[in-house]
Amino acid sequence: MTTYRISQLAERSGVPATTLRFYETAGLLPAERTASGYRVYGEGAVDRLAFISSAKLLGLALEEIRGLLDVREDGACASVRARMRPLVTERIREAEGRIAELHAFMAHLASVRAALSGPAPEGACGPDCGCTTARATVTGPEREAWRDAPVSCTLAGAELGERTERWRALVATAVRREETEDGVRLFFPPRAEIAARLAGLAAAEQDCCAFFDFTLHLTPAALELSVRAPAGGAGVLAELFGGGARPSSPGCR
């Protein structure tokens, strides 16, 4: 049976000895001690480290990796895959949220650049000079395009059911709701991870249901999601976001 001292394992795996000690302390990498007190790692340590490194590249937390390693010890790849799949799915959702936030930020930057490219006012800066920007807003024809979009959805079957459940699970975390003239306003705990999930879902929803209009407002004290839909989409809005629906024709769900 092959064993490795910590220096040997560090050289073989490319993982620094300090990291190996940390992994041992975190319960990710078991080690034994010789009579003289040296750490000794088993022959499966190299493969175990490769799995840990791969999981870290996927953005998995140490606690999640530890759980995967526990399942991996049973020797059944199918069990590891079953445990790993929802973790990767969650990382995809988080990435979608970050992408949506970046797209929104880029759009805001573009509007500020356009304003700064115009003629400067006489004298000092003022509230309307363009140097100071507040909450980004959308004006003009783009803002009302959702009113004329067809009330239809491109999702079906399992995709539709999965999207609906994701919305319902997230809406269930709202602390307050208000009915508005064209839809609903939901209030959530002001946490960045919730904002990212809302942004990602809203962006995905507009790819399949262009008749929705979403506005996300995040401050240190509040997180608000406003959702609007034309009269024909009221039933779909109520199904996803709760509340009573205005009289309407059948929606896409």
What would you note in describing this structure?
The protein starts with a strand and ends in a 12-residue tail after the last helix. Helix content is 49%, strand content 12%. The strands form two sheets. It has a four-stranded antiparallel beta sheet, covered by helices on one side. It has a three-stranded antiparallel beta sheet with strand order 1-3-2. Strand 4 (176-179) and strand 5 form a beta hairpin. By secondary structure, it is an alpha+beta fold. The model is unreliable at 135-143 and 244-253 (pLDDT under 50). The protein contains nine helices and seven strands; from the N terminus they run βααββαααααββαββα. The relative contact order is 0.09.
Characteristics:
three-stranded antiparallel sheet, 7 strands, 253 residues, disordered C terminus, alpha+beta, 9 helices
Shape summary: elongated
Total helix count?
9
Please tell me how large the radius of gyration is.
Answer: 26 Å
Amino-to-carboxy terminus distance: 60 Å
Please give the share of residues in helix: 40-55%
User: What low-confidence regions span 5 or more consecutive residues with pLDDT below 50?
Assistant: 135-143, 244-253
Strand content: 5-15%
Mean pLDDT: 81
SSE class: alpha+beta
Summarize the biggest pleated sheet: 4 strands, antiparallel
Placed side by side, the strands forming the largest sheet appear as 4-5-7-6
User: What series of H and E elements makes up the topology?
Assistant: EHHEEHHHHHEEHEEH
Beta-strand segment tally: 7
